[in-house]
Write a structure and sequence with these properties.
Blueprint: E1 2-3, E2 6-9, H1 15-24, E3 29-33, H2 39-44, H3 46-63, H4 80-103, E4 108-112, E5 115-119, E6 122-125, E7 128-131, E8 134-137, E9 141-143, E10 171-175, H5 179-191, E11 194-199, H6 210-222, E12 226-229, E13 234-239, E14 242-247, E15 250-254, E16 256-259, E17 263-265, H7 272-275, E18 298-300, H8 311-326, E19 339-342, E20 348-352, H9 355-360, E21 365-371, H10 376-380, E22 387-393, E23 399-405, H11 409-421, H12 426-430, H13 443-448, E24 451-452
Parallel strand pairs: 1-7, 2-3, 2-8, 3-4, 8-18, 10-11, 10-16, 11-12
Antiparallel strand pairs: 5-6, 6-7, 9-17, 13-14, 14-15, 19-20, 20-23, 21-22, 21-24, 22-23
Helix pairs in contact: 1-8, 3-4, 3-5
The protein binds flavin-adenine dinucleotide (FAD) and nicotinamide-adenine-dinucleotide.
Length: about 450
């Protein structure tokens, strides 16, 4: 039996930073990781996929070169092994950076192995008992595999295994039309594959307003991606070298199938019952506004608590836990204003409420919409697809939410995100003098166009 002041299970986007802060504050900490330091983001999520998105953007610019007056000699092609290796090396470097950093922290013991609970104060790793009065769970999530007939018998890909591909699929069929499905759809189309997206819901990116979903579908269809929605249940079988997919009465033949139907929290092999920790029906650990579970002294951070599904929300969970524990603050998850981006090209930057959610709240609203074709910078770059939208409370002037689907949208949205965090009303932003020529310079004009709905 080894005793610690704190045990952190999982080295994702909250665990390492919390373990380091606790150790630097003089606590004796064990950080347990069963696979790779950095978790999903570094090894199978944001970092490799955004590296692939950058390769796909380069491919697209080569395909469009003549439109910009650039003459290329002969046909271009994509070296998929090099594309894959580039993503793997970005991951490798980030992981190595974490290894070096964590390895040099006094008071921090890094243990490799699967952790499971024996009771609320005891964790077993590689047969050894570890005890601590405080335990932090940061175990993340994994791809959800639906129970469709025949799926288990075909060599389907997930967002993790597709990162190993070093050849171009002839026809990639993607099941699920949300973040993962759409990002991979566009990158593989740009690499040169035939791509079909199958979404069981009525529209892709269905958490967004319908006008945003429609615009995204338009952008992807214009690049030759076949999008099928409302497909219902699917059936899979092998047909020679092909995979046969029966979707909504139609049969498709794919060389590869990517399953992108959401993620399942890694809480089922932790033996949480032994600690008395409760989960919801989908396996997410139930936490309060300060991330404590129903058991005192046990916290859950990141994707496994179901309160966020992004790297920045997991990292923010670390910030909340650390501030409350070490800095005498009282920070709460409900104070977080959620922003995120969908990294298709052009990207979607989002913050706060959708228009649909704002309307459902019953407040008096102001809404403004402006097409990217009116944005000088977008015209200059010949990237005028998309639009920006802002929703504000008509009585208080409070900005409730915004979306920028367009070139630079993932960055430009931060001006609005910052204003929302500063609790600034839209009136204050109207007279800002932004830099020309940027996408952000349209924000005051967007605000000037606010109309009651
Ligand atoms: C393809 C893809 C692209 C993404 N792109 C983005 C993006 O662009 N932006 C963004 O914000 N988010 C993105 N995400 C989401 C983001 O990666 C996650 O939200 C984030 O990594 C969650 O961090 P976490 O700390 O909760 O868990 P994780 O990063 O998943 O870490 C959990 C860790 O716990 C370990 N673990 C699990 N169980 C145990 C156990 N019993 N014992 C010991 N260790 C255990 C795991 O091995 C893992 O290392 C993407 C995700 C995917 C799949
Ligand atoms: N840019 C980013 O920040 C980014 C990128 C990738 C992933 N992520 C994170 O990863 C998580 C998982 O992403 P995701 O796209 O897999 O999940 P998701 O939950 O966002 O979307 C899953 C999609 O699959 C569809 N679907 C679900 N079950 C289905 C079925 N049986 N058949 C057909 N369609 C089905 C859903 O209707 C939905 O559109 C997200 O929550 C997100 O936070 C973030």
């Amino acid at each position: 039996m080894r005793s610690f002041d704190a045990i952190v299970i999982g080295a994702g986007q909250a665990g390492p930073f919390l373990a380091a802060r606790l150790a630097e504050a003089g606590r004796k900490v064990a950080l347990v990781e069963r696979k790779f330091l950095g978790g999903t983001c570094v090894n199978a999520g944001c970092m490799p996929t955004k590296t692939l998105v950058a390769s796909a953007h380069a491919a697209r610019m080569v395909q469009r070169a003549a439109e910009f007056g650039i003459v290329t000699q002969g046909a271009s092609s994509v070296d998929m092994a090099k594309v894959r290796d580039r993503a793997a090396s970005v991951t490798h470097n980030a992981r190595q950076g974490l290894e070096d950093w964590l390895g040099g922290i006094d008071n921090l013991t890094l243990l490799r192995g699967q952790a499971r609970f024996e009771d609320a104060r005891t964790v077993i790793v590689n047969g050894e008992r570890l005890q601590a009065p405080q335990i932090y769970i940061n175990v993340g999530a994994r791809p959800t595999i639906p129970d469709y007939p025949g799926l288990a018998d075909i060599p389907y890909l997930t967002s993790t295994s597709i990162l190993q591909l070093d050849t171009l699929p002839r026809h990639l069929v993607i099941v699920g039309g949300s973040y993962i499905g759409l990002e991979f759809a566009q990158m593989y189309r740009r690499f040169g594959a035939q791509v079909t997206v199958i979404e069981r819901g009525e529209r892709i990116a269905s958490r967004e307003d319908a006008d945003i979903s429609d615009a995204i579908a338009g952008i992807l269809s214009a690049e030759g991606i076949d999008i099928r929605t409302g497909t219902g249940d699917l059936r899979f079988a092998t047909d020679g070298a092909d995979i046969e997919i029966v979707a909504g009465g139609e049969t498709l033949y794919a060389s590869h199938v990517l399953v992108a139907t959401g993620r399942t929290p890694n809480t089922d092999d932790l033996e949480l019952e032994a600690a008395g920790v409760t989960c919801d029906a989908r396996g997410y650990i139930t936490v309060d506004d300060r991330l404590q579970t129903n058991v005192k002294g046990l916290w859950a951070l990141g994707d496994c608590n179901g309160r966020g599904a992004f790297t920045h929300t997991s990292y923010n969970d670390f910030e909340i836990a650390a501030a409350n524990l070490l800095d005498g603050e009282d920070r709460k998850v409900s104070d977080r204003i959620l922003g995120y981006a969908l990294y298709i090209d052009p990207p979607l930057g989002r913050v706060g409420m959708s228009e649909r959610a704002a309307r459902a709240s019953g407040r008096p609203l102001l809404v403004s919409v402006r097409p990217m074709s009116a944005v000088g910078r977008a015209v200059e770059k010949d990237e005028t697809q998309g639009f920006m939208k802002l929703v504000a409370d008509a009585s208080s002037g409070q900005i409730l939410g915004a979306a920028i689907l367009g070139t630079g949208g993932d960055e430009a949205i931060h001006g609005i995100l910052d204003a929302m965090n500063a609790k600034t009303s839209h009136h204050a932003l109207k007279w800002a003098v932004p830099i020309h020529p940027t996408v952000s310079e349209q924000v005051p004009t967007l605000i000037g166009g606010l109309q009651p709905v």
